[in-house]
Design goal:
alpha+beta; Glutaredoxin; five-stranded mixed β-sheet; 17 helices; 30% helix
């Protein structure tokens, strides 16, 4: 293998080497020149990319498999190489009469071809054909793929075959061909065999390559892969407790929130329908995480996944925060959790939903906060503490920002209103009213109500993403850096 990771090239003998194809007007026009050059003192070897009988009148080496063209990085035909002591010492591309004469040390080369133009640019090499480039890279490049390859019968439908083998979440998946997996791996600098996480419930090792396979199946693009890898890593921590989240009868699954410049680089949607369909990155990153949990960890519904009803969000849910439009005094979720404003992060929250908060009439923070508190107090069991994420839309957030409220004040004022009535709280804990409780119970533990901004600019509707349970018995939100 060479230093740049490309598998060693087929060695070329000393002399001249010409790569052509019949489907190239320049190459066809050069036929008499090629014949003339083949009778010279310097040995000439001619390689044809598409027709072993072309050009006529010379001995042709069949390169229809494009091995020579790919290994020697031929981008244009004709390309003429000179090799000395087994090393390429020069090349020329296309046809330029004076240049060829100097390169081949043949002062009269092409003199008899008086109808041939003095210069012709040539054509694209078949080895750089977009329809072939991934296949050739897999066939001839240095491959680090270690996963077992499953061959389908010729008459099998790929989607049906993958569904029948249990690899799907119930929706069609993209066949993870070696070419697609290698292309996906180009999205990260990490080694394909690095272990990303130990995936519950089977406690199976997940390598970068195996995560890439599931990212292909989910429909991700290669530049999404770093986000998927970070999501897998975060989900498989003890703190997030993916195993417990699978086993619960509750609705929740892992929800991925993305912060940092990478959101824009991969064209995530922070605006209208940010929590919904229509954006490839938003739709596929969370799905890739869930496929990893299913296919590597064995977390299948009806088996270890014991949800009584489940939720559409368990297919996969990912969205970015609208950081650029955050008002002064309103740090992003990632910054609030200890990261820098330029850091790329994922935050995982065990939740489901969303459920809406509608208030189109309140014009003061106090009035709008009353609506928020009323809806938040009803999350989960209204008698017991809960976990939740509040997704503020711009129209609602402006009410607070225009009044000079910071995010911390918003949290503080909201917490005052999120207290379960002591009698109701006692009834919820004991199963019956004792009538003796005097102290209210906070609806949310400190840090268990996350707040992010997303959504379209118009619409006085915010959303609650209800959570599972926190603490050691449940799942804690976790934020980690994205490793490019």
């Amino acid at each position: 293998m060479s230093d740049d990771g490309i598998a060693s090239s087929p060695s070329l003998a000393d002399g001249l080497h010409l790569i052509v194809k019949q489907d190239c007007p320049t190459c066809v026009g050069l036929e008499p020149v090629i014949v003339e050059l083949s009778h010279g003192l310097t040995p000439l070897r001619v390689y044809s990319q598409d027709d072993p009988e072309f050009p006529a009148g010379v001995s042709v080496i069949d390169d229809t498999n494009l091995a020579v063209s790919w290994h020697h990085r031929i981008e244009t035909v004709p390309t003429l190489l000179r090799v000395v002591d087994g090393v390429e010492v020069g090349r020329i591309v296309g046809w330029q009469r004076a240049e060829w004469r100097q390169f081949t040390e043949s002062p009269s080369l092409g003199e008899s071809a008086d109808q041939l133009a003095d210069w012709m640019p040539g054509c694209g090499s078949k080895s750089v054909d977009p329809d072939l480039v991934d296949e050739l890279a897999f066939r001839f490049g240095a491959s680090s793929l270690r996963s077992r390859r499953v061959e389908f019968a010729a008459a099998e439908d790929e989607n049906e075959a993958m569904y029948q083998r249990g690899w799907s979440d119930g929706l069609p998946v993209v066949a993870p061909t070696p070419e697609r997996v290698k292309r996906m791996l180009e999205g990260t600098s990490r080694d394909a065999q690095d272990v990303v996480a130990i995936v519950p419930p089977n406690l199976a090792e997940a390598t970068v390559e195996q995560v890439a396979i599931n990212a292909v199946m989910a429909g991700c693009r290669p530049n999404y892969l770093p986000v998927v890898l970070a999501a897998v890593e975060a989900a498989c921590t003890d703190r997030f407790n993916m195993h417990g989240l699978l086993c619960t009868l509750w609705f929740s699954g892992p929800i991925v929130i993305v912060n940092g410049p990478i959101r824009r680089e991969i064209a995530m949607n922070t605006g209208r329908s940010a929590l919904g369909q229509g954006n490839r990155a938003n739709s596929t990153i969370g799905r890739a995480l869930q496929l990893v949990i299913r296919n590597l960890g064995g977390g299948r519904p009806g088996e270890i996944d014991r949800a009584a009803l489940g939720a559409p969000s368990k297919i996969g849910w990912c969205f970015p925060e609208d950081e650029e439009a955050l008002p002064d005094g309103w740090p992003s979720l990632a910054v609030e959790r200890g990261f820098g404003p330029g850091d790329d992060t994922v935050t995982l929250f065990a939740g489901h939903g969303p459920s809406g908060i509608v208030d189109q009439t309140s014009r003061t923070p106090e009035d709008l906060l009353r609506s928020f508190a009323g809806r938040l107090l009803a999350t989960g069991n209204p008698f017991q503490p809960s976990e939740a994420m509040l997704v503020l839309t711009p129209e609602h957030q402006r009410v607070f920002a225009d009044a000079g409220w910071s995010k911390q004040r918003f949290h503080d004022e909201l917490a005052k209103r999120l207290v379960i009535d002591p009698v109701i709280a006692q009834a919820g804990i004991s199963g019956g009213s004792s009538g003796s409780a005097t102290k209210g119970v906070p609806k949310f533990r400190p840090g268990s109500l996350l707040v992010v901004r997303a959504g379209g600019d118009a619409g006085a509707f915010s959303a609650i993403i209800e959570g599972w349970i926190g603490g050691r018995a449940g799942s804690e939100p976790i934020t980690i850096m994205i490793d490019r």
